[in-house]
Amino acid sequence: AHRLVVLVSGTGSNLAALLDAHDDPAFGARVVGVVSDRAGVAALDRAREAGVPTAVVALRDFPDRDAWDRALTEAVAVFSPDTVVLAGFMKLVGAPFLARFGGRTVNTHPALLPSFPGAHGVRDALAYGVKVTGCSVIVVDAGVDDGPVVAQEAVAVADDDDESSLHERIKVVERRLLVDVVGRIARDGLTVDGRRARLGRPAAD
Ligand code: GAR
């Protein structure tokens, strides 16, 4: 099966959805490793419970960001991924990582990019006052949440939403979208042509 390595920083509910999906052979992909930039997070427990090997590569254990990024790249490379999934991974990956895994790393984000990139996509959408937000799966590139969009889904903002109620509603949609997209990448491939990404293999010509 297509090998997935999932990068996490926190709760790991998106990871849990991928772990649930990978028991179904029809999904076409397996989570073969989980790498966190933080020790002691719930996402690591979820991986261990599923019997998936984990690694922690914390920024503070390295002299600088570049050394951390190289160690992260190595920790991911150990698992020989076909696709890397950033699922609530709250750090930017750097040039060494992208040199190795660029074009086959996707990130899930709780807003309709290019609106509301960064660490507070839900809070920023609420503060702006938009009536519709949602979630995006993108191909990771060197910018902050600005890689080619693979898939998006909309979620309506309710008048009485706060950050946590809205984020929980987005996450229900987000988990389903991420599992769907990752399965389709595993089975059908991902084609990136400039800013345009689509599911499926490049047309043969
Ligand atoms: C998800 O909503 C994900 O989109 C978001 O963090 C949450 C992680 O939840 N990521 C970002 O905001 C990245 N910019 P989880 O740990 O339960 O999967």
Automatic annotation (TrEMBL):
GO MF entry, a single one: phosphoribosylglycinamide formyltransferase activity
Gene this protein is translated from: purN
Function: Catalyzes the transfer of a formyl group from 10-formyltetrahydrofolate to 5-phospho-ribosyl-glycinamide (GAR), producing 5-phospho-ribosyl-N-formylglycinamide (FGAR) and tetrahydrofolate.
Sites marked Raises pKa of active site His: 145
Name of a matching Pfam family: Formyl_trans_N
EC annotation from Swiss-Prot or TrEMBL: 2.1.2.2
Record protein name field: Phosphoribosylglycinamide formyltransferase
Family: Belongs to the GART family.
Catalyses which reaction(s): N(1)-(5-phospho-beta-D-ribosyl)glycinamide + (6R)-10-formyltetrahydrofolate = N(2)-formyl-N(1)-(5-phospho-beta-D-ribosyl)glycinamide + (6S)-5,6,7,8-tetrahydrofolate + H(+)
Pathway(s) this gene product operates in, as recorded in its UniProt entry: Purine metabolism; IMP biosynthesis via de novo pathway; N(2)-formyl-N(1)-(5-phospho-D-ribosyl)glycinamide from N(1)-(5-phospho-D-ribosyl)glycinamide (10-formyl THF route): step 1/1
Swiss-Prot/TrEMBL keywords: Purine biosynthesis, Transferase
Positions bound to (6R)-10-formyltetrahydrofolate: 65, 90-93, 107
